[in-house]
Amino acid sequence: MIAHVRGTVAATTLDSAVIDVGGVGMLVRCTPGTLAGLRDGREAQVSTSLVVREDSMTLYGFADDDERDTFELAQTASGVGPKVAQAIVAVLGADGLRRAVASEDVTALTKVPGIGRKGAQRIVLELKDRVAAVVPGESASVAAGGAGPVAGGGDAADWRPQVHAALVGLGWSAREAESAVVAVVDVAAAQYESDGAADVSELLRAALRTLSRA
């Protein structure tokens, strides 16, 4: 197993990053939250999980070990493959999945693209005894290499295309993504006012909550 990769970020796309590790470009499929913390040309470390199939080997990347372990745990449930497991991490996060399973919150699980009500019930049933209760106030890091927030020194709208692209990558339409971006403008403004930076990962989660309510 490749537990993590560390190196210079050579390139990023809507759903992946190429990290230069000792002169070898490692293609890593990443969650939107993880990608939001990566910057081309900068050093980063990404926790990884290698999924081997008959015709492919795919390396999935996450902001930290907790997200990676959640991705692997989710796949132990019947009917959950890497794509859905990655969507679970992107939408709910590690703590969110633990809360949903521990409280049998089927509705929370159905917010993940690709999971219907029956699938959510099955996940709760099969993972119930495998997840630990979340300690109040405890949450996983969302930044890879400590680079999650977008610095306030740049354009205050820099977060918009990142969040929009991440939502489209998760399966929402461009129009739905744009509506969700507009809905979290006030959240971004509050972040800039208090911290001088926008936390793209948190804004993405806020946008996803908006879409789920819609």
From TrEMBL:
Location, primary (coarse class): cytoplasm
Coiled-coil residue spans: none
SUPFAM superfamilies registered for this protein in UniProt: DNA helicase RuvA subunit, C-terminal domain (SSF46929), Nucleic acid-binding proteins (SSF50249), RuvA domain 2-like (SSF47781)
UniProt domain Helix-hairpin-helix DNA-binding motif class: residue ranges: 72-91, 107-126
Region of interest: Domain III: 155-214
Pfam families assigned: HHH_5, RuvA_C, RuvA_N
Residue ranges crossing the lipid bilayer per the database entry: none
Recorded family membership: Belongs to the RuvA family.
Domains (record comment): Has three domains with a flexible linker between the domains II and III and assumes an 'L' shape. Domain III is highly mobile and contacts RuvB.
Function: The RuvA-RuvB-RuvC complex processes Holliday junction (HJ) DNA during genetic recombination and DNA repair, while the RuvA-RuvB complex plays an important role in the rescue of blocked DNA replication forks via replication fork reversal (RFR). RuvA specifically binds to HJ cruciform DNA, conferring on it an open structure. The RuvB hexamer acts as an ATP-dependent pump, pulling dsDNA into and through the RuvAB complex. HJ branch migration allows RuvC to scan DNA until it finds its consensus sequence, where it cleaves and resolves the cruciform DNA.
NCBIfam families found in the cross-reference section: ruvA (TIGR00084)
Name of this chain's protein: Holliday junction branch migration complex subunit RuvA
Source organism: Mumia flava
